[in-house]
Amino acid sequence: INKLEKSTRRLHTDWLRKLCDTLQCSPSDILTDEERLVPVVGYVGAGSEVFIDNQSGDDVLEMIDPPIGVNKNVVAVRIRGNSMYPFREGWVLFYTKDCDGVGDDCIGRICIVRRTDGAMFVKEVHRSSRSGMFTLLSWNAPPIEDVNLVWAARVLDIRPT
Fold first, then answer.
1. Lowest CB count within 10 Å: 7, 85, 102, 133, which one?
2. Nearest Cα residue to 31 out of 20, 39, 21, 22
3. Is the pTM here over 0.85, yes or no?
4. Per-residue pLDDT of the chain (161 residues; tens, 9 = 90+)
5. How far from the centroid of its chain's Cα atoms is residue 88's Cα?
6. Terminal-to-terminal C-alpha distance of the chain
7. Cα–Cα distance, 107 to 51 (Å, whole number)
């Protein structure tokens, strides 16, 4: 605790859990807004499909350190398996969960997307030749063309853990 207070040890998830167990409190009792951890709300599996226990993303699988400069609406999903090559098993993708529609900042970028049937994927988003539709690209699968999306959220950071 002394090293944490003197900033000679970084506060990470394991230390936060130890502190909360010892002090019998929750992480929000210890952390300031700038120090909040990011919830991992699901995982990316085969075919780059995103699996979240409930679509609101309220279920939290774990808490991890955020990327620098994130806002409080950022969540993460963890990669399982090798379907996201060149990214590896265990890597984490961060995105903002409060999106609606498909913004111009998503075009040509890797995004978490939700189709109208509820399925979620990690894909590169491009406009389709059909109005209001999109083409979803990945590095290791054929394009998914003429897709209607409920929303797309640009992946803000991808990192190994």
1. 7
2. 20
3. no
4. 787 777 677 666 677 778 888 888 776 666 655 556 888 888 888 777 788 754 444 567 888 888 776 666 888 999 988 877 788 888 999 998 777 899 999 999 999 999 999 889 999 999 999 999 999 998 878 899 999 999 999 999 999 87
5. 15
6. 24
7. 23
